[in-house]
Amino acid sequence: MNKLIIRVSVVLFISGLISCGFHLRGDFKLPAQMETTYIKAVDKNTELVRVLKRALKTSNIKIVDTQQQAQAVLNISNEKQERRILSVDTQGRAREYEINYQISFSVGTDENSFLIAEQTINLQRDYLFDAEDVLAKSREQETLLKDMQQDMVRLIMSRLQAAAGK
C-alpha cells in the first residue's frame, strides 16, 4: 500500500511540474554563426576559459584551434580580479573584503562584423575575514572566485543566446 501511495505521489508531482511549464535549462541556443568558434584570450589556461569551452561544447559549438578554421571569434580581451578592503577592526586589521571580477568580451564573424560588440561584465562579492582562521578564509575566497567564474560563463552564454534571437 505504501509503495502505491509513493508512486502516485511521484506521478502527481511530476505532472504538476510539467503542467506549470517547468523544464531544465539544458543547453543554450546560440547563433548559427558560432557553429565553429575560436576563443581568443590572453591566457587560454584560465578557469574561465576552460568552463566557457565546456559550456560552448554542451551547446553543440565546435571549438577550433586556429582563427582561420572558425566562423566566429570569441575574444576575451580583459579578465581582471581585484580584492579590496571594505572594513577594518579596532586594531586596524582587515575584517571584510570585496572581490571584483571583470571581463570584456566580443564575438566577431569577420574583421569588420561583430555578432556582439565589446561588452564588459563586472561581478562583486564580499566576505568576512577572520584572522584566527586564515586557511579557511583563503579557501572561501577561492570558492567565491570559482562561483563568480561560473556565474560569468552563464552571463556570457545568456548574452550569446540573446544575440541568436536578434
Structure description:
By secondary structure, the chain is α/β, with parallel strands linked by helices. It has a single domain (29-164), classed as Double Stranded RNA Binding Domain, CATH 3.30.160. Helices cover 37% and strands 35% of the residues. The protein contains three helices and five strands. It has helices at 2-19, 47-58, 134-164; strands at residues 36-41, 62-63, 72-88, 94-110, 113-128. Strands 2-1-3-4-5 form a five-stranded mixed beta sheet, with helices on one face. The chain is flat. The N and C termini lie far apart (54 Å). The relative contact order is 0.15. The mean pLDDT is 83.
Which helices and strands, and how do they pair?
Blueprint: H1 2-19, E1 36-41, H2 47-58, E2 62-63, E3 72-88, E4 94-110, E5 113-128, H3 134-164
Parallel strand pairs: 1-2, 1-3
Antiparallel strand pairs: 3-4, 4-5
Structure in a nutshell:
By secondary structure, the protein is of the alpha/beta class. Helix content is 37%, strand content 35%. α2 (47-58) runs parallel beside α3.
Helicity, as a percent range: 25-40%
Would you tell me the structural class of the helices and strands?
alpha/beta
> Sheet with the most strands?
5 strands, mixed
- If helices are DSSP runs of H or I spanning 4 or more residues, what is the number of helices? 3
Give the total of domains: 1
Distance between the termini: 54 Å
CATH architecture: 2-Layer Sandwich
CATH class: Alpha Beta
Strand order of the largest sheet: 2-1-3-4-5
Rg (CA only): 22 Å
Average pLDDT, to the nearest integer? 83
CATH H level, superfamily name:
Lipoprotein like domain
Helix and strand pattern? HEHEEEEH
Shape: flat
Give the total of beta strands: 5
Uncertain stretches: none
β-strand amount: 25-35%
CATH topology: Double Stranded RNA Binding Domain
